[in-house]
Amino acid sequence: MYQLVKSVLFRYDPEVIHEKVMSSLSWCGRHPGALRLISTACQFNDPRLTVKRFGLTFPNPVGLAAGFDKNAVAIPSWAALGFGAVEIGSVTALAQPGNPKPRLFRLPADQAIINRMGFNNDGAEVIARRLAKLNTDYGSLAVPLGVNLGKSKVTPLEQAAEDYLRSVQVLQPFADYFVINISSPNTPGLRKLQDKDKLADLLAVISSYESAASAKPILLKIAPELSFAQIDEILELVFNYNLAGIIATNTTTSRNNLSSSLDEAGGLSGKPLASRSLAVLKHLRAQLQDRLPIISVGGIFSAQDVYERLVAGASLVQVYTSFIYEGPLLLRRLNQGLLQLIERDGFSNVEAAIGSRAPD
Ligand SMILES: Cc1cc2nc3c(=O)[nH]c(=O)nc-3n(C[C@H](O)[C@H](O)[C@H](O)COP(=O)(O)O)c2cc1C
Question: Does the predicted model carry a pTM greater than 0.90?
Answer without folding.
Answer: yes
